[in-house]
Each structure stands twice: as C-alpha cells, then as structure tokens.
Amino acid sequence: MEIAGAVQGVGFRPFVYRLATGLHLTGWVLNDTHGVFIEVEGDEAQLHRFLERLPAEAPAIARITHLNHTWLAPVGYEHFEIRHSEAAGARTTLILPDLATCADCLAELFDPADRRYRYPFINCTHCGPRFTIIEALPYDRPNTTMRNFTLCPECYREYTDPGDRRFHAQPNACAVCGPQVAFYEKSNCALENKSSSIGLSSPSDYPRTDGAWMRSAEGEDALRAAARAIRSGAIVAVKGLGGFHLLVDARNPAAVQRLRERKQRPTKPLAVMVRSLEQLAELCEITPAAAGLLQSQAAPIVLLPKRLNAGVAETVAPDNPYLGVMLPYTPLHHLLLAELNFPVVATSGNLTDEPICTDEWEAFERLGAIADCFLIHNRPIARHADDSVLWLVDGQPQLLRRARGYAPMPVRAPQSLPTILAVGAHLKNTVALSIGEQIFLSQHIGDLETTPAFDAFQRVIADFLRLYAVQPAAIAHDLHPEYLSTKWANSAIGLNNSDSSDAHSSPQPLLIPVQHHHAHLAACLVDNAISGPALGLIWDGTGYGLDGTIWGGECLLGDAANVQRVAHLRPFRLPGGEAAVREPRRVALALLWELYGDEIFTWEWLAPVRSFAEQERRLLATMLAKGVNTPSTTSMGRLFDGVAALLGLHLRVTFEGEAAVALEHGAARHET
Ligand SMILES: [Zn+2]
Ligand SMILES: [Zn+2]
C-alpha cells in the first residue's frame, strides 16, 4: 500500500503497527519520500478489514490524499515491523506544520508526578514542532534539528515502544536528554549569585557570556527570571517555535510604549497572548467559531472585537475596535503564562519590516537594542515561521497572514502542473512551488524592503527547492520590473546561463511575468476550486498595470490563462508618488482636484487642505496641472486612503492600510 498526504510526524506508522498486529498480520511499514509504504500479509478477510480500517481510524491530524494498494504473492513475514526510512525517490510527502501542545502533554506538563513536570519542550506524536525543525525529508530524527540530542534510556524506551504515545515522536525529549532554556541579561546588571542552577538536571552548553550579554540563570530559574522581568515592565525576547517574540506586560502602558519606540512601530496593532480562553473572554468577544480557531492545533492569532475596558493598555491596539489574540501554543509559553497569569504583548522579534529572528546569537545582535533580556533555548530553529493571523468574516475564518500552523500545507491544483516556482510580489511576500497536483505555499516572508527580508526570501526559495529536491521548469514573477522578486527571477536565469557548459545542467527555466491583479484572480479561482471564466473584482493598493500605470481597482474577466480588463476605477493622480502612499492627505487633494480643479486649494474647511501651507499648495497645484511626479492610478486602496483623509481620520500613515482600516472601523459603527 502507498499512502500519500500529511502522514509523517503524526504517529501514522505506530498506528499502522497497532492495527496490523491487532489483526494478526505480518509485514512492514516505512516512511519514504512519497509518504508511507506498507506491505501486510495474512488471512484474506483480515487484510480486507485492514484496508477498511486504515483510512477510517487514521490519526486525527493525518491527512490522506492518496491511497493505492496492490495484491502480491505472500512472502512469509514472521512479524510486523517498522523499517528504516528510505530517502530515495521524488519528494512529494507533505511536511506537517507545527502543532500546538496537545491536551495529554499539557496535563503531564502540570502534573508534579509526571517525569516531564514543567519541562518546556514536552511533545508527542500528536503535537510539537515539525516544519520548524525539519531539515530534510523523510521526517526522521537525524533529519531534524533534534539530531544532536541523544535520547536518554527512558525517552528511547518510549520512542521504540509501539504502544507509547511517543513512539517515533521525532522531537521526543525530557529534562535529562533534551533542550534546555537559559536566561541572559546585560553583563553589567547580572548578579553573580543569580547563576545558581538548582533543578537543572543537564547543564546546557551555553557560554557564560556573549558580548554584552551574560547568562544569569538556567532551567526553572531562567523561566522564573523571565517572568520576573516581564512583571517588572522589562522587554523580554523569548525564543519560541518559529522565531523570537518580544514580550511585555500588556497592562503596562509605559512598557508597551517603550517597546513601540525601540521597535520603531508607532501605531500598528500588537498581538496579545493570554493564558486561557477564560482570561481571553475578559478582553474580547469570543464566538464558538473563534474559540475553535484559537484552540486548534494551528493556534493562530485571531482578530476579535475588543471589550470596553479590556484590561490591556490602549496603546496595544490604538484606535482599533479589534485585538489580535492567541493562546499559548508551546509548553514554554504555557509555563510562562501560567507563571504570569496576565496578558502579555507577544510581537515578532524583529525591527519593523524585517523578518522574525530565529537564532539566538543573531538575536543578541539584532534585538539587543530592543530587548532588556533574553529567554533562549538550544533547540535550533530550521526555518522562520511567524504567527499566523486570521479573522472571521461572516463567521468564516479568513487568513490574513499564513505561516505557523498552516505552512507549508499545499493547495490542491485543478490538474497536474509542471514544476513552477512563483516568487510573489513586493509586499507581504510569500513564494509557492507547484509539484504535480500540489501547490506548496511558503510561510509569510514579509515586505521585501530590507536586506534581511530579501535574504529571508532567498533562503526560503533555496530551502523549498532543496526540501522537495526539484528544479523549476518555469519561474513566475510580478510584471513590475523594479520589484526585488522580479529582479531575483531575472538573475536566477542569468545564474543558470553561466554554468551552461555543464552538459547535465537542467534546461533554462522559463520566465513567466504575471500582471499583479491577474495573479489575484487566478489565486482566487484556485482557492475556490473553479477554473472560470469569472469576473474578478480586485480591490488592491498597488500593482503594475499592463499600460505601465499603477492599477488597483480592477474588474478582470477571464481565467488563469487570459483576462480582459473590462472596467476599472476612474484614474486619478498621486502627487509625489510614494509620498502620497505615506500621506493620504495628498490623495485627498488629488481626488478633489480631479472633480473641482484648482479652486479646492482654497477650501480651508477641509482638514487635508488645511494641513498644507500656502506654498505647498501652490507646488501641488503645479504638479497636478503639469503632471510632474504625479503617477496615474486606479488604486482602490488609495481611494480609501483619500476618503479617510477627507474625513480627517488619517492625514498621514505609519503602516500600509492604516487609513483604510480606520475608514472601515468608522463605517462599521453606522448603518447605511
Ligand atoms: Zn502531545
Ligand atoms: Zn529523555
């Protein structure tokens, strides 16, 4: 039998073992690069029962996409066994996303009688890290970042006992043999006598100091030190599953303000982690659908309506009726939140616009100016994964950021596709790779504005091509010639050219430029499993149009192959180009000018007009009249910005969508 899908790292082989031995069948099971491969032999009626029960009783977190079986002549196996994984063949098995701590592990974590009592890395075949520890396929411990932790006798017994919940749980660990936490603070404030590490069974290999940072506690002491620091208003960088978080007391306005200043993030909402659903209900209005999402094994951030007097500082999500909230999703977070028992801001460990930090030595560098201290651990993170963000629209979950808990699960393509690497656009970049009928979506990478972000983009592409061991036949990129992703695609072709002397090199990948809004339409078609033709209404901020102007309020009719632009917003001008994106007041003036001409510059009763000095207004009038540095656009995002500015909501913005979000929230309070 060949089984494909999300069948590795979910306890599938132990399940097969128990099922086969229970039915007195012999043979073997193994993981290969396609999924799971089984040979069973025995009584024919029992074999039929095995075939029926296997898909019906498979572990709940497994996802079977294909199941094929063939009848063979008996070999005469004496036992049923789990064989070593085979690494050969095309890599099409699904890599599981990271899974939030399961109920069984959580109970053990807080059970003083359990041998993993308060161990921050407890996990089993039903939960724990996956995507963020996998370095290669198939999913086996030597191919994960756990390979340097040798199982202690007790963990080894669990790992090899088919009746155990931790049978072949690749990240299996305990306080004796597994990863440990350590607490670092500035050398000059660390006290020598704080370094006692009572309760630590295995010394970590962490150095005493790293530059300005000094290890002042380990194990249980480290956890307590981090909690103490957060309680006192400090900013603590905590190494989690897919990267670092910056944690502060969400009730403390001064602490939140300091975080905003150091992170250079003046107003964009910050996410909050809360100990339990009960505590969360004090902050937000929770529907059963929202509770289901929060408690799912993806454990995303969910945007929920904020209660009045929610008990978190107003600066956490200023002027915003929503709050982004999540529950603890690793044992370390559970322990920390239980210790604190109040909501904490848990925002990505990065400077604004940079990707999340994953390595502690890099974190000391990059986050050293933001964090007051660090709670780190020595389980390496194979790749970054930010927290995913969802909200509910008409009771249905909609992903705003797809990363931890979801990536890299594929989207099903309508038919088998050639291997295409799609490198995405400039803002909120992700990449995608099609293999057969699967389209693997990368985790959220971010805006390709900074060098670290572009590095992360290149790393994710290299990582995907290596993990799935493929060379793309084509590279799809945005039509915009200046996007870094477009430039990368062009240079990738160039790189291939340089070693064309190698007779065995794969043929040159084809470059496929895609118009931004056509890509939106095609993505929407695949997402809804229809092939079209369809009429797509694409309301967007910015996208390079076929005529070289900035599109964004488009009606496109067609399918994934071809579209026709049947209608669009009436074009207007963006005085100052990029400056108009940061200053919606410029858009407001441009919109008015389209309708009423130069007289609008005297309309002092309008906030956006009033905000410009006499001389600035004259300059804007000249720019608009002569068309100097005033690119033409049909952008719906800019129209929202302009209207928000006209209403006096936001004359300037500090992050993309700020004005449009304010307009939406303002409108939601009124019936039309
Ligand atoms: Zn578990
Ligand atoms: Zn152990």
UniProtKB/TrEMBL annotation:
Pfam families: Acylphosphatase, HypF_C, HypF_C_2, Sua5_yciO_yrdC, zf-HYPF. The keyword Metal-binding applies. It is an enzyme of class 3 (hydrolase). InterPro entries: Acylphosphatase-like_dom, Acylphosphatase-like_dom_sf, Acylphosphatase_CS, Carbamoyltrans_HypF-like, Carbamoyltransferase_HypF, DHBP_synth_RibB-like_a/b_dom, HypF_C, HypF_C_2. Coiled coil: none annotated. One of its GO terms (molecular function) is carboxyl- or carbamoyltransferase activity. The keyword Ligase applies. It catalyses: an acyl phosphate + H2O = a carboxylate + phosphate + H(+); C-terminal L-cysteinyl-[HypE protein] + carbamoyl phosphate + ATP + H2O = C-terminal S-carboxamide-L-cysteinyl-[HypE protein] + AMP + phosphate + diphosphate + H(+). The active site is at 13, 31. Keywords: Hydrolase, Ligase, Metal-binding, Transferase, Zinc, Zinc-finger. Residues 220-405 form the YrdC-like domain. Belongs to the carbamoyltransferase HypF family. PANTHER family: CARBAMOYLTRANSFERASE, CARBAMOYLTRANSFERASE HYPF. This is acylphosphatase. It comes from Caldilinea aerophila. The lineage of its organism: Bacteria, Bacillati, Chloroflexota, Caldilineae, Caldilineales.
